[in-house]
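SEQUENCE-TO-STRUCTURE ENTRY
===========================
What this section holds: a protein sequence and its matching fold, both as plain text.
Question of interest: how does this chain fold, as expressed in C-alpha coordinates?
***
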Amino acid sequence: MTFETDLLTAMRTVTSAAYAFPAKAPPAVYATYQRIYGRLHGTLNSGLGAPRGTFQIDCWSKVKGQAVELAENLKAALPETLKVGDITDNPDDYETDTQLHRASFDVVLWQ
Protein backbone atom coordinates (compact mmCIF):
# COMPACT_ATOMS: atom_id res chain seq x y z
CA MET A 1 0.00 0.00 0.00
CA THR A 2 1.06 3.60 -0.54
CA PHE A 3 0.83 6.51 1.85
CA GLU A 4 -1.91 7.98 -0.33
CA THR A 5 -4.02 4.81 -0.23
CA ASP A 6 -3.58 4.43 3.53
CA LEU A 7 -4.39 8.10 4.18
CA LEU A 8 -7.48 8.16 1.95
CA THR A 9 -8.79 4.96 3.58
CA ALA A 10 -8.29 6.46 7.06
CA MET A 11 -9.92 9.77 6.06
CA ARG A 12 -12.93 7.90 4.70
CA THR A 13 -13.57 6.36 8.13
CA VAL A 14 -14.63 9.88 9.13
CA THR A 15 -16.14 11.14 5.85
CA SER A 16 -16.90 9.51 2.53
CA ALA A 17 -16.21 12.93 1.01
CA ALA A 18 -12.41 12.69 1.00
CA TYR A 19 -10.41 13.24 -2.18
CA ALA A 20 -6.95 13.81 -3.55
CA PHE A 21 -6.50 17.50 -4.36
CA PRO A 22 -8.14 18.96 -6.38
CA ALA A 23 -11.57 17.47 -5.82
CA LYS A 24 -14.01 17.32 -8.72
CA ALA A 25 -17.66 18.23 -8.05
CA PRO A 26 -17.38 17.79 -4.27
CA PRO A 27 -20.30 17.74 -1.83
CA ALA A 28 -21.03 20.65 0.54
CA VAL A 29 -18.46 19.55 3.16
CA TYR A 30 -15.38 17.66 2.06
CA ALA A 31 -11.68 17.08 2.66
CA THR A 32 -8.73 16.98 0.29
CA TYR A 33 -5.11 15.97 0.80
CA GLN A 34 -1.83 16.49 -0.97
CA ARG A 35 1.66 15.24 -0.21
CA ILE A 36 3.97 18.13 0.62
CA TYR A 37 7.12 16.32 1.78
CA GLY A 38 8.57 12.84 2.04
CA ARG A 39 11.83 11.09 2.88
CA LEU A 40 13.41 7.86 4.03
CA HIS A 41 14.60 7.93 7.64
CA GLY A 42 18.19 6.75 7.92
CA THR A 43 20.59 5.96 10.76
CA LEU A 44 24.31 5.24 10.81
CA ASN A 45 23.84 1.83 12.45
CA SER A 46 20.88 0.37 10.59
CA GLY A 47 20.74 2.19 7.25
CA LEU A 48 17.47 3.28 5.70
CA GLY A 49 14.35 2.82 7.78
CA ALA A 50 10.66 3.41 7.31
CA PRO A 51 9.50 6.04 4.82
CA ARG A 52 7.95 9.20 6.23
CA GLY A 53 5.59 11.57 4.46
CA THR A 54 3.98 14.88 5.33
CA PHE A 55 0.53 15.58 3.96
CA GLN A 56 -1.59 18.72 4.03
CA ILE A 57 -5.25 18.02 4.79
CA ASP A 58 -7.74 20.72 3.85
CA CYS A 59 -11.39 20.64 4.94
CA TRP A 60 -13.80 22.75 2.89
CA SER A 61 -17.32 24.07 3.44
CA LYS A 62 -19.54 27.09 2.80
CA VAL A 63 -19.94 27.21 6.61
CA LYS A 64 -16.72 27.70 8.60
CA GLY A 65 -17.88 25.65 11.58
CA GLN A 66 -18.48 22.60 9.38
CA ALA A 67 -14.96 22.78 7.92
CA VAL A 68 -13.42 23.13 11.39
CA GLU A 69 -15.53 20.26 12.77
CA LEU A 70 -14.47 17.94 9.94
CA ALA A 71 -10.79 18.87 10.50
CA GLU A 72 -11.07 18.15 14.23
CA ASN A 73 -12.76 14.79 13.56
CA LEU A 74 -10.03 13.82 11.11
CA LYS A 75 -7.26 14.84 13.54
CA ALA A 76 -8.85 12.64 16.19
CA ALA A 77 -9.37 9.63 13.87
CA LEU A 78 -6.12 9.47 11.89
CA PRO A 79 -3.89 8.32 14.82
CA GLU A 80 -6.30 5.43 15.43
CA THR A 81 -5.63 3.92 11.98
CA LEU A 82 -2.24 5.28 10.86
CA LYS A 83 1.26 5.74 12.32
CA VAL A 84 1.08 9.48 12.94
CA GLY A 85 4.24 11.30 13.95
CA ASP A 86 2.90 14.83 14.30
CA ILE A 87 -0.15 16.97 13.52
CA THR A 88 0.32 20.70 12.99
CA ASP A 89 -2.49 23.22 12.48
CA ASN A 90 -2.31 25.67 9.58
CA PRO A 91 -4.14 29.00 9.40
CA ASP A 92 -7.83 28.85 8.50
CA ASP A 93 -8.73 30.60 5.29
CA TYR A 94 -11.64 31.85 3.20
CA GLU A 95 -11.48 31.79 -0.58
CA THR A 96 -13.55 34.58 -2.06
CA ASP A 97 -13.61 33.11 -5.58
CA THR A 98 -15.15 29.79 -4.46
CA GLN A 99 -16.82 31.20 -1.32
CA LEU A 100 -15.44 28.29 0.70
CA HIS A 101 -13.97 28.21 4.20
CA ARG A 102 -10.87 26.05 4.70
CA ALA A 103 -9.58 24.45 7.89
CA SER A 104 -6.13 23.04 7.25
CA PHE A 105 -3.54 20.90 9.04
CA ASP A 106 -0.40 18.93 8.24
CA VAL A 107 0.08 15.34 9.32
CA VAL A 108 3.34 13.38 9.35
CA LEU A 109 2.88 9.67 8.58
CA TRP A 110 5.28 6.77 9.00
CA GLN A 111 4.85 3.64 6.97
